[in-house]
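Journal club prep, notes for RB
We'll compare a predicted complex against what the paper describes. Inputs for the adenosine-5'-triphosphate case:
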Amino acid sequence: MSEQTPTVNMDKIVSLARRRGFIFPSSEIYGGLSGCWDYGPLGVELKRNVKQAWWQAMVQERDDMVGLDTSILMHPQVWVASGHLKGFSDPLVECKNCHVRWRADELSEQKCPSCGGELTEEKMFNLMFKTYAGPVESDENIVYLRPETAQGMFVNFQNVINTTRKKLPLGIAQTGKSFRNEITTGNFIFRSREFEQMEIEYFVKPGTDAEWFEYWYQERFNWYVKLGIKKEHLRLYEHPKEKLAHYARRCIDVEYLFPHGWSELEGIANRGDYDLRQHSTSSGKSLEYFDDETKEHYLPNIIEPSAGVDRSLLAFLCDAYSEEPDKDEIRAVLHLHPSLAPIKIAILPLSKKENLVACAKPVYNELRKQWAVQYDDTQSIGRRYRRQDEVGTPYCVTVDFQSLEDNRVTVRERDSMKQIRIPISTLKKTLEAKFAREDFLVVPAGGEIWKTN
Ligand code: ATP
């Protein structure tokens, strides 16, 4: 499995993302800012859908999970207790000739990759961004942009337990921005300095942690598969015992076969009681849990599945992309899972003629109450289909002159390119069934039932 070669090259994805308004370089008119990206009109929809799919599966559909949204700036003591101030660093070397800085553990040779010059000794470089809270730039006012969302969940553990009256096992989930002053950025949005995370801190009774760890890495692996990533493009990598942080009992990464090779998509760690113990000692506040059933007080153990929104989005884009021969041309398609697709349905009137518009607009207005729908009446129908395929729109609805007579429209499915003609009165129901992946209920004129699978 590991020998597999990536199926798409990154230039194709970067170019599609740029051209179709998924992702732009940040501050592009000023030449961009390294490690920062802006999500365009389609990108923002895709990103919201990724987070929504995660929230739905991890919070909404579970009894043992609650959400949180904590601040990016936190009390500086948080980073002392967590160990970030001391240890959240990467080894840095500098070229003595051209002064470019590199991350030492990513170099294959002991010389500068850009000019071949000699490198300095390694020193540790802390990845946290520093700034000042308030108008005085003094040491007491230093605050950090959080490098992970996790700490907000640890320090709120008691607040959540007290206000929800939930019992263990209990997870806290949040999505949000994190910042890391990475020494080198790259591979498009894979490694940036400002990015978004989707993190879970799952609190369990000590002694049950090993079992819950098994559960969580499988659960998280399956989440990607359910959302359409091919199993053969995913693998689990277990960190060897000797490389684990001293408090970590086990750590498994879900890796994806990115265009630049197998790399981490998400890390799942068994952190024991390290985090709550550190914050309890440092703050002087008890973070123990009282177990009603056994009448014991204890510090829960934590299983942490920590994923990146941007990295997942990149994996979804890469895995969905395909180029398929279609007559004399090549059809570029994003086979995105329908729940992730930025546009769910496109309404395509055959022409801009008034009577067609009068028929197509009400259909558009009705469907957009429920889905992200695009109305497109420019260029030939073939080109419009191609445009929608390229951004992953699962269904196109074409309104033609015949529609004015028989009140029927043509629905075209992205993946199979199959088309059926159905009454406008059944369109919404039909699309609902398709999105719910139910068998198609309507028998079209030709008699063939358009099956989902
Ligand atoms: P890496 O080894 O790639 O630097 P990490 O092990 O430091 O990652 P974690 O601290 O485990 O990453 O962070 C959890 C998740 O957050 C990662 O799996 C990834 O999806 C995301 N993430 C971390 N750093 C970045 C970054 N610089 N850019 C984009 N996403 C990131």
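Talking point for the session: The longest strand covers residues 261-272.
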